[in-house]
Each structure stands twice: as C-alpha cells, then as structure tokens.
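Q: Given only this backbone (159 positions), what sequence would you predict?
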C-alpha cells in the first residue's frame, strides 16, 4: 500500500508541475498514467496469469467504453441544463424535469452496467478474485480522490 502512496504522490507532484507550467491539467495524459498504475496493481492484487490478464482487460475495456459513452450523454444533458440557466432562456418545468429524469435514468444505467460487468467476470476470475477486484477498485478510487483533494488544498497563508 505504501508503494501506491509513493507512486500516486509522484504522479500528482509531476502533474502539479505540469499544471503550473501549462496552466491546466492534461486530463488524458493523467488519466493514462492512473490507468497504467491501476493495471499494474490489479494484476498484482488479483494474481492473474497472462491469458487471464488479456481476457480481463479486454472485457474491462469494453465495459469502460460503454460507461464513457453514457458519461458523455450525462455530461451533454448537464450542459443543456447549464446553458438554459446561464442564457436566461425560460425553460418549462416539463423540459427541466425531463432532462433531470434522463440524467437519473442514465446514472441508474451506469450502476446496472457495472453490476453486469462484475457478474460477467465469473468465467474469467474466481469469486475470491472478483471480491478482491471490488475491494481494490473502491480503495484505489478513494486513494486517488484523497490525493487529488490533498493537492487542491490552498496553502495556508502566513502572517
């Protein structure tokens, strides 16, 4: 676990340097680094052989592609709502309600897809490995979230 902290700290440090040099985060670059780290740690945590690794990551890539498409649709709906409120355009309650309901439906679909993905792994992974995957994903996400929030905290002003 300490190695995860070290690697994440280094990634965030370099990302912070990049941020200060370029003025913005390069999400795709950072996302790629985190995905590589996640793959390495997953292979290690689940103890997968080469064939299992290939099959698992192939299925995971399909799942992620589907999830990203839904995320883009959700973002599009949120952008629509934001545009309505920023432009001052008067929208009907029904229009807003429909858009919010669409977002909620897509969020539910994301969770459903995730459950289906986890359940589909029984032909690749043992139930012990699936349980370790679920635990790993939660902890990995939490650690990344903590590191990001830690990086975003403004420095304390000295008087």
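A: Predicted residues:
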């Amino acid at each position: 676990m300490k190695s995860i902290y070290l690697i994440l700290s280094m990634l965030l440090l370099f990302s912070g340097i990049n941020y200060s040099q370029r003025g913005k985060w390069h999400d795709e670059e950072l996302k790629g680094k985190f995905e590589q780290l996640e793959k390495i740690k997953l292979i290690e945590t689940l103890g997968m052989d080469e064939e299992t690794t290939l099959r698992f990551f192939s299925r995971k890539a399909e799942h992620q592609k589907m999830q990203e498409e839904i995320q883009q649709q959700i973002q599009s709906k949120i952008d629509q709502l934001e545009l309505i409120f920023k432009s001052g355009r008067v929208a009907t309650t029904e229009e807003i309600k429909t858009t919010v309901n669409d977002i909620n439906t897509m969020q539910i679909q994301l969770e459903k897809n995730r459950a289906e993905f986890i359940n589909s792994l029984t032909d690749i992974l043992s139930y012990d490995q699936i349980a370790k995957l679920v635990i790993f994903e939660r902890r990995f996400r939490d650690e990344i979230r903590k590191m990001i929030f830690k990086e975003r905290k403004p420095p304390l002003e000295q008087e």
